[in-house]
Amino acid sequence: MQVEVTTDEDGFKGSWFAATIIEPSGEDEYLIEYKTLTNDDDTEFLRDDIRACNIRPCPPEIIFVDGFKVMDEVDAYYNEGWWVGVIAKVLINCNYVVYFKEYDEEITFKHADLRTHQDWLNGKWVVPSEV
């Protein structure tokens, strides 16, 4: 099963990584294999035991024809995962400055590296403005 997983480890808060569930590995825990994170010599994908509360289905794609606006909550693809941020500035050529509150940092992204942020609540995907 294709999923996204998160962790509470320092340096990874607010991020989600694509993974595949391999098998149950304990009570409310699953062995997963990351789809983008590899070992130090890049010869195999990392595997980890992840608690069920840190696993969610992959979110559906939402396409914005007009692009994003300042203060839109987005996920930005960075360092092999999706990181939650907010559009701080709209630049030319479909580029955006995204602010990451958890790290008090701004990074510029192309439109193709952003997606609308969605939360998995009570078994349904919800856009934060709908909460």
TrEMBL record:
Pfam families: Agenet (PF05641). InterPro entries: Agenet-like_dom, Agenet_dom_plant. It comes from the Eukaryota. Residues 1-63, 66-122 form the Agenet domain. This is Agenet domain-containing protein. The lineage of its organism: Eukaryota, Viridiplantae, Streptophyta, Embryophyta, Tracheophyta.
